[in-house]
Specification:
Number of helices: 1
CATH class: Mainly Beta
Shape: globular
Number of domains: 1
Keywords: Cytoplasm, Endonuclease, Hydrolase, Nuclease, tRNA processing
InterPro entries: RNase_P/MRP_Rpp29_sf, RNP1, Rof/RNase_P-like, Rpp29/RNP1
CATH architecture: Roll
EC number: 3.1.26.5
Number of strands: 6
GO biological process, one term: tRNA 5'-leader removal
Structural class: mainly beta
Helix content: 10-25%
Distance between the termini: 18 Å
CATH superfamily: Ribonuclease P/MRP, subunit p29
Organism: Thermococcus gammatolerans (strain DSM 15229 / JCM 11827 / EJ3)
Order of helices and strands: EEEEEEH
Strand content: 35-45%
Length: 89
């Protein structure tokens, strides 16, 4: 998983942290991605958060310890359809 292809990978189970958001209350949310829908990520940390994808910038930590920042607008879409886009290119 790299910066270029993280959009095509499964996000559930990755450690995530909200770096920037249009709503200041969302900044700093940290935990593991529990679920993903078309427009939201469910992150479990000290509590369960449902975060809209299109208004945040997220930093994911891979199993190797690499930190990758992603604009949430690049993640909008049903997970299974986003994963299929890889094969269309």
């Amino acid at each position: 998983m790299t910066r270029k292809n993280i959009v095509w990978h499964e996000l559930i189970g990755l450690k995530a942290r909200i770096i920037r958001a249009s709503h200041p209350e969302l900044v700093g949310i940290e935990g593991y991605v529990l679920d993903e829908t078309r427009n939201t990520l469910t992150i479990v940390g000290d509590r369960v958060w449902t975060v809209p994808k299109d208004v945040v910038e997220i930093e994911f930590e891979t199993a190797a310890g690499e930190k990758i920042r992603v604009d949430g607008r690049n993640l909008v879409g049903r997970p299974e359809m986003r994963l299929k886009k890889r094969w269309r290119k």
